[in-house]
Amino acid sequence: MTAPKILIAFYSRNGSTEALAKAIAEGAEIEGAEVRLRRAREIVPAEVMAKAAGWAEKAADMNAKYPAPTEEDAEWADAIVLGTPTRFGSVASELKAYIDGLGGLWFQGKLNGKVGSVFGSTSSMHGGNESTLLSLYNPMAHLGLIIVPLGYADPVLFQAGTPYGATHVSLQDAVEPNSKELEVARFQGRRVTTVARRLTFALEAFFN
């Protein structure tokens, strides 16, 4: 059986969501997955980015490390994991623009039956992590993905994260994801890979 193919498409400005994405990738790879890490690109002009200290520089650094997500990535994947910082309790426009660009695949039914999962970060306590993750479930349902939350399927979920997906609170970028939050993210990678493998195996058995 071929290795499950996992797309992790995320947006990160200051590194918190990126750190979770990398940990999810580690967990997926531990379970034998082939992983593509992709960073959504800015959709605002340079003059807007210049108003936030370090934004343009950090974006350039991350864009050098990660390609932009494409339609081909989503079609390739057995599972799509989306990550975002909160923006007023909802998904960042940069990641939403990528999701909105999947309309062609949606129309052709090419995303139906793929696994979907989400993760995110916020700057402040009660800053919208859970509402943001829940808001991402809506487009996943429309795209036909099989949504895989975390529940409390691993004991670490009683210490960090949420039942909806891995999360982090950066306290205005003062703290990085801690060991428990990264453990939740690695568990998410393992869980998504396990479910994707089972679904892929079932489909291969059905058609062979």
TrEMBL record:
Q: Which residues form a coiled coil?
A: none
Q: Name one Pfam family in it.
A: FMN_red
PROSITE patterns named among the record's database cross-references: FLAVODOXIN_LIKE (PS50902)
In this chain the Flavodoxin-like domain maps to: 6-192
* InterPro entries associated with the record: Flavodoxin/NO_synth (IPR008254), Flavoprotein-like_sf (IPR029039), Flavoprotein_WrbA-like (IPR010089), FMN_Rdtase-like_dom (IPR005025)
> If you read the UniProt record, what top EC class would you report for this enzyme, in one word?
oxidoreductase
The terms under GO molecular function for this entry are: NAD(P)H dehydrogenase (quinone) activity
Keyword Flavoprotein included in the entry's annotation:
yes
SUPFAM superfamilies listed in its UniProt record: Flavoproteins
- Cite the entry's keywords alphabetically: Flavoprotein, FMN, Oxidoreductase
Under Enzyme Commission nomenclature, its number is: 1.6.5.2
Q: What family is reported?
A: Belongs to the WrbA family.
Q: What is this protein called?
A: NAD(P)H:quinone oxidoreductase
